[in-house]
Amino acid sequence: MASDPETSYVKMTEVDRRGIGDEASLVGKHCQLSYCNQLDFLPFLCQSCGKTFCLDHRTESSHQCSNPGAWAERRRRANLARHAAGEDRTMRDLVSQKPCADPACKTTVGTSLAPGVHCQSCNRDYCLKHRLKEDHNCKNLVPVGARVRPEDVTTAADRAKGALEKLRIWGAKQKESASRVLPKPKPSTAAARIVATNTLRKTAKGDEKLAEDKRVYLYVEAEAETAKAKFPKGQFFYSKDWVIGRVLDAAAKSLQVQNINNKVTDERDRLRVFHVEGGRLLEFNEKVGTALVSGNTIVLLRGVGPAVPDLIKP
């Protein structure tokens, strides 16, 4: 039969459609229960014992079937003989819809609109946007199901050590190049410094409301290679009570140098203040009145970092 019904009996008309018992549709059938024998033009066939019965005696219990439950057993065996839903299929075939393996992607792959692409290298499924190895950082991924060798496992300390070594080499190069481009200290004699400072007081710009005894007059420059500025240099005065970080912000604004210190953590992108006379980088939290005196020169540098505090030895 094409499909087993839910009951132990079927109408003879249904059997007739499959080419069995044409006689029943023409002259009817007598109920085969011994004391009934009623002629029924729409008889029922019991699938357990194979006999025909009228409407009243069609069930196994009503005609006291000689082979009760046989139809149910046949049906159970037929179901067991069917192929399982996932037989001969991989897990990827069964779970067809899944999120793209890229952690930042929200696309569901395995659909008609986003079929998904399987990467043979890392053994993951990606959307079309992240299908290329370069787009999902494949070289840094451990393939799913692959065994990780002990020699391939690096600790956080090892990675940090490698990063510091790279920074040290990079910092040494920055130190060498910076020493060639930074300005030299202003006049070294006391008399020359006094004359230069007096001239600086007349040309320096700043907040006019700041008391004279609170001012520190400085020459400010931007290093051309790393801190490109609309105005390469200028003369300004700042409060002795300010910290170097505030001076950096004000100087960058005055010279129109891009300042993204509050947006980045990589030292290669951060601006720093270099004290020419002191030959060192100034910390952001140092007080102006402690680190600088009037007539000094400071330079805005990018990418030198705290790893190389003595770019030029005094």
UniProtKB/TrEMBL annotation:
<feature type="domain" description="AN1-type">
    <location>
        <begin position="94"/>
        <end position="146"/>
    </location>
</feature>
<keyword id="KW-0862">Zinc</keyword>
<dbReference type="GO" id="GO:0008270">
    <property type="term" value="F:zinc ion binding"/>
</dbReference>
<dbReference type="Pfam" id="PF25327">
    <property type="entry name" value="UBL_ZFAND1"/>
</dbReference>
<keyword id="KW-0479">Metal-binding</keyword>
<keyword id="KW-0863">Zinc-finger</keyword>
<feature type="domain" description="AN1-type">
    <location>
        <begin position="25"/>
        <end position="73"/>
    </location>
</feature>
<dbReference type="InterPro" id="IPR035896">
    <property type="entry name" value="AN1-like_Znf"/>
</dbReference>
<dbReference type="Pfam" id="PF01428">
    <property type="entry name" value="zf-AN1"/>
</dbReference>
<protein>
    <submittedName>
        <fullName>AN1-like zinc finger protein</fullName>
    </submittedName>
</protein>
<dbReference type="GO" id="GO:0005737">
    <property type="term" value="C:cytoplasm"/>
</dbReference>
<dbReference type="InterPro" id="IPR057358">
    <property type="entry name" value="UBL_ZFAND1-like"/>
</dbReference>
<dbReference type="InterPro" id="IPR000058">
    <property type="entry name" value="Znf_AN1"/>
</dbReference>
